[in-house]
């Protein structure tokens, strides 16, 4: 079996720095008092090295931007890489903090050999502005050691792979520091030297874990992998190197997350209509923002247009440190058919959805309503505003059964101040509502007012006269 | 002079406005014969603005548009009501044969939002008709809306205050609506692009409310000093 391992040496650093235009030197630190964990090329030019004390690093490069390491974020960043790798390979496993392992023997036919797959992976890594060291190996352990040493070559030849592996230094085998030290003192500097010894000899001198590890690298002991399955939700977190103060500044980093979402939805062949954005602040509760589309959607440009409208309206109370995009609602994709064979002319449903989404984003969902009838005698209860949803079947209303009513209904009845000029019709008594406590008892008339307006008037039980509608 | 005119009229190169026939199939007749006659068969301008100037609701302004609303809703096009002064009454619309699922009301708070919504609605191919009740509009806003209407190819009717009629506007059709005797609607055409002359017409919209002469003596006394009609004797 052939295994492929991708090692991301600067995963956390690159995830942070790729979304910013700021070119200041940057380090990831292990706590505010700890050591430098990862350092950007700019910081390395100034003499900062991973493993160095943070205080020393700050003295070397005073303008250094520091981000505290977050194990959870590192795990999430690795999972984000696993998501796209899962599209290329079926059996993958996560090797935290920064490695992914894939079984490639079964994939060679799909991708047309190892080289196209290798190039594909290199392209995917480059597209995400990351550094990835790829290596193949005959065992998971061997592939991992080769990748971490950046000694991988695109080959499946067992002899070359064995030779490469045997040339690796003993310190790359991932053994405990004590065991590495012990082996070095014995004069065993490469893995090849160690493999020349019999397992019986190693077991006598070193602890059993070391032997297990060495045998797994060599392939004489099975190395069971737990295969990873993508979660049924989309989650992307973007940490900013520098706090973002204006909500419109969030659009640029959001673009990448939405493109990632589109690729994910495309791969799932699903749509969504609900995006959750969350902005994290220092020492404050998060700001969350729900983006809704009027219908199932998967295109990042549409999401981005909606996000732009919402972000323009959003006032951030505090600078934003990080942003997360979560999608947990997926809708099976329904293939819309084009209007004609050549697909000319936009699909009306699509135009409609995009328009309604934009209106809802800018004006709020309460501002857009459609109307529906309701079987009630009371005029104000005989209709109801309804939120917009594109139902497949509109309700069928037999209009001829309905009584004659004015086209305009006043939001609340207005007092009638002057007598009408001409009385046209009436009275029509409407009495009801005893069942829900909103009782009405009114006599309705139609009359022409002196202003020339045709009004729907009523006289209530108390003898007051009111205008309730206009025959517009 | 007469001969000169006659020779000119026989010249095929001279285009005469009275022979102008608008392209058929791309026409939205108003559905009211007197107005269609006055507009010379052009109907509601497609992909352009129409302005209606009126003092107050209830004079038959919706009846004027009802044939158009009904047609657009049946064609599965959407009819937007932007900031209507009152609630469009769903049972009455349903009775008139309008498909309620195609009616959308929009409510905006700020003028900037109003213009934005109006422009977006107009630009969308899903829109059949936009009716808007806006406050004061700048001439440049009107021009912008006119461009949006041209881009979308929909119809847009702006209901405005009669004071605004004095200002020039880029709208293709401008109508001044006022109540006339016998519940009629009197329409003065202030401007009609491509329609030649402007004029007046009156639409008989009296049947928009039912009349029952017989029961009128039932009207009881109102808040006014004298009862307009004698009180019904029990």
Keywords for this entry:
A: 472 residues, Alpha-Beta Plaits, five-stranded antiparallel beta sheet, B: 234 residues, Rossmann fold, eight-stranded mixed beta sheet, 9 strands, 21% strand
Give the topology, please.
The complex is a heterodimer of chains A (472) and B (234).
Chain A: E1 3-7, H1 11-17, E2 26-29, E3 36-39, H2 41-45, H3 54-60, E4 65-68, H4 71-86, E5 92-95, E6 99-103, H5 108-111, H6 114-127, E7 133-137, H7 140-149, H8 158-166, H9 177-185, H10 191-196, H11 199-205, H12 208-218, E8 234-244, H13 251-268, E9 270-281, E10 287-297, H14 300-313, E11 320-327, E12 331-332, H15 348-363, E13 368-373, E14 383-387, E15 408-415, E16 422-432, E17 440-448, E18 454-460, E19 465-470
Parallel strand pairs in A: 2-4
Antiparallel strand pairs in A: 1-6, 1-7, 2-3, 5-6, 8-11, 9-10, 9-11, 9-12, 13-14, 15-19, 16-17, 17-18, 18-19
Chain B: H1 2-10, H2 33-38, E1 48-53, H3 61-74, E2 78-82, E3 87-88, H4 90-95, E4 103-106, H5 111-123, E5 127-133, H6 139-152, E6 155-160, E7 173-179, E8 185-192, E9 200-203
Parallel strand pairs in B: 1-6, 1-7, 2-4, 2-5, 5-6
Antiparallel strand pairs in B: 7-8, 8-9
Helix pairs in contact in B: 5-6
Distance between the termini of chain B: 78 Å
User: In percent, how helical is the residue content of chain A?
Assistant: 25-40%
Can you count the helices of chain B? 6
Helical proportion of chain B, percent range:
25-40%
Q: Mean of the pLDDT scores of chain B?
A: 81
CATH fold field value of chain B: Rossmann fold
Number of strands of chain B: 9
Mean pLDDT of chain A: 83
